[in-house]
Amino acid sequence: MVRQAAEISTCLVRLFMNLTHTHSLSISLSVMATKNRSDFKATSRPATIFAQVVMVAVFTLVLVWLLHFRGGLAFNSPNKQKIFNVHPLLMVIGFILISGEGIMMHKIVPASKDTQKLLHLTWLFIALIAAIVGIYAVFKFHNELDIPNMYTLHSWIGMSTICLCGIQWTVGFFSFLWPGAEQETRARLVPWHAVFGMVIFLMATLTAETGLIEKSTFLKLTADSQEALIVNFTGLLLILFAISVGLSVLLLRKH
């Protein structure tokens, strides 16, 4: 009996040691996971900085394309191409770049949440106005040359994006900036507002990509054309800008 009791005691001690070792391992893994998450937060800053660099590059390429290769800008001109040029200028620089900056405003400006919220709303309002004026410019160009409006996939996606952007801004204003909005309602809308905002931003980028392809086709740009390189690099950098904006928003910032 004494020998059996000793064996049982030995087994219990071993079982306790195993459980203790397993618990220690679990704690170690938890600490490592927490540390990894802390390190993961730091990746937001490089994405935000990269977005700023890409923004400058896109801004430069668009101006070079429209001013050097396409003849300049005008709302009224015998050269109708100048009227059209207002459209890509405002849609790329005015809409996509400015809205991207507005989306990242919480990461760019070290200010209070209320100030960041106001800046976010202001920049997106500027982007929306730029998009509306850009739509007006291309309609004016089409009407003066008797070209039908809204007959391409590019125009369909673009108009849908502008309408959704207007709805998103209006809902955001009355939900997050209007004093009468309830705190509980704001809390419920935050994740949906962020998701739909990124969807609209990606739709805007897709619209720009289809517009660049469409314009290259109409101009019959060849492989050895410098203008074709400008257009293609602009499209590539717009994709990188959209990705970096998305990463800047999705990844946490290290405080």
- N-to-C SSE string, H for helix and E for strand: HHHHHHHH
Assembly state (oligomeric): single chain
Instruction: Please tell me what the overall shape is.
Output: globular
The percentage helix is over 70%
Q: Report the major sheet.
A: none
Mean pLDDT: 85
Strand content: under 5%
**Distance N to C terminus:** 63 Å
Compute the gyration radius: what is it?
Answer: 27 Å
Low-confidence stretches: 19-42
Per DSSP E runs of 2 or more residues, the count of β-strands stands at: 0
Query: How many helical stretches?
Result: 8
Helix/sheet category: mainly alpha
Note the topology:
Blueprint: H1 2-41, H2 44-69, H3 80-103, H4 105-108, H5 113-144, H6 153-177, H7 183-219, H8 226-250
Description:
This protein has 255 residues and is mainly α. 84% of the residues lie in helices and 0% in strands. It contains eight helices and no strands. The chain has helices at residues 2-41, 44-69, 80-103, 105-108, 113-144, 153-177, 183-219, 226-250. The longest helix is centred in the first third of the chain and has 40 residues, at 2-41.
Q: Summed up, what is this model?
A:
The chain has 255 residues and is an all-alpha fold. It has helices spanning 2-41, 44-69, 80-103, 105-108, 113-144, 153-177, 183-219, 226-250.
